[in-house]
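Backbone-to-sequence.
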């Protein structure tokens, strides 16, 4: 239980720092709008790939057959 709480807190801290950096990037007036849009699109693509990979791994973990492992 404590390990899961630690992972959640680390994840929330990491997401907070990323959000702060992303907000600063997208609010900067000196960066052209085309660059900000392109970076945003790439970020969404990376998030989609990450979610798909995690979802597939969870599905495979549920169906894996450990024939050589004693219960």
């Amino acid at each position: 239980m404590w390990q899961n709480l630690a992972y959640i807190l680390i994840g929330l801290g990491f997401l907070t720092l990323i959000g702060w950096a992303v907000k600063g990037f997208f609010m900067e007036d000196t960066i052209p709008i085309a660059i900000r849009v392109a970076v945003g699109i790439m970020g969404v693509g990376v998030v989609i790939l990450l979610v798909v990979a995690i979802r597939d791994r969870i599905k495979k973990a549920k169906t894996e057959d450990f024939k050589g492992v004693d219960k």
